[in-house]
Amino acid sequence: MTITRINQFDALPGRGAELRRFLESLIGTIRSCPGCHSCELLQSIDQDERLAMIEIWEDVDAHRAAAKAIPPSMLQEAMALLAGPAAGAYFHPVPPSDA
Hints:
99 residues; alpha+beta; 4 strands; 32% helix; globular
């Protein structure tokens, strides 16, 4: 069963466009990692500084392995744009209940 990773990022005031460009630059790398089914970047309608990335993976291990594909120097670049730590969690599909 696949898992979904949802990450939320809040940029420093006025740095939302920079964070968006940075995250956009990661999408190709993420999508090319083994076990990645999809990766999509979203921007808040109400707050230009808030972005979310939704990734669908074969399993949690595939996501964790892919995280190692991003060079630490790039992660440091992102940290300089963030207002605080990124929030992220794993989710799994909920099968329909028999009602």
